[in-house]
Fold:
Amino acid sequence: MRYFDAHCHIQFPHYDEDRDTVMAAMRNAEVGGLVVGTDLVSSQKAVELVQGSETLWATVGLHPNSANEWGGNRAYRELLKDPKVVGVGECGLDNYRPEDPAATKAKQREVFEAHIALAVESNKPLMIHSRPSKGTSDAYRDMLDILRAAKNENSDLRGNIHFFVGGVEEAKAFLELDFTLSFTAVLTFARDYDEVVSYVPLSHIISETDAPYIAPPPNRGKRNDPLAVIPVVEAIAGIRNEELETVRIQVLENARKLFKLT
Structure:
């Protein structure tokens, strides 16, 4: 691998017509990836998809927007036994569209804490989704309260904050927990996160696409794919004014280290 997409969903129906072609293109471009589950079915599909691949791995979990589907740890615990499963999630908190804020937050917190227990039990990192309500950092603040308490009890707890959209203050708080932050192709068409990308130590940055979402130019508005991680890494290097090869190597190594990829 030369590049690594630490968060993609190529098991989703968006790829049903050309999934093999997309995966072949990834191999040809030396792009590895983490296929992320968002519920039990998509987690199972992710695990099935990565079998036999030398450059694809999976995570399993329940997206916070589906927290009401939570049926307990048992099924996810079984999936975590597979050696190709290297993380717990996508899991976390999402305050962006809560219909009943109090009830939604309580359920999401319950499910997220169950995922933390799975991460501790399996000694695998969390793949965290944290989306604040518009114009605030509320989900990050709530997330940090939970993670600080969990880290105090289990110092080995680790993870990645997927699709980070916070500022320097939030980044600093996650870095104090020794969590990594991953960035998407938003960096290729918006300048909103230049300050935080420059602030975060290169040792704690990971690249991702969140494919099929958030395609870079000239494909904005179309389906994304994991090859878009290449312009993400180029954007990180450009924002930081660092050599592309230095950034490429370090970002890849960060993913290898966090997810213990072999």
